[in-house]
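Posting this for the archive.
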Amino acid sequence: MCRACRAGLRGFDRAATYGFYEGKLRSLIHLLKYAGIQPLAAPLAGLMHRALPVDQTFDAIVPVPLHWRKSLDRGFNQAELLARELARKRNIPMAKALRRKRSGAVQASLSLAERRRNVAGVFEVRAKQDVRDKRILLIDDVMTTGATASACASVLKRAGAKSVSLLTVARVDRRH
């Protein structure tokens, strides 16, 4: 568990990741996300599955949503593809419980404070999704600062989720 999670500075309760966002793993994520090689979702979800502690149980797997315009431009949401594969592997229902209300600036070039401001108030729980008392596994491809995942987790918790755990393929090593 990360120091920020233990200190309660994140909306999510715990976070797990397969590896660092570098080298071959970074290249594979880029091929999925930007080159549209969607069959890579299955092996990447397999890596995520290996990173998840076997003793943790969840009621639903929820992908971090893209804004509808970005999803339309890209043709898919990589987090949703990963969530669908992981749901199949773990035999847990996938729920598209979150919606992105508005588009924000691309996070890659923003500082931590700017990222937090950029995602503040962006997410909401879909009207027909009941997350009350559920243990949610939130899925994204990469965690950089955790601002997006934290914003998503906070919304899920305000809607009554019992716990929210984050799982990503990779995370950016911010120690350097």
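The chain has one domain: 7-171. Helices lie at 3-6, 23-33, 41-51, 68-74, 78-90, 112-119, 147-158.
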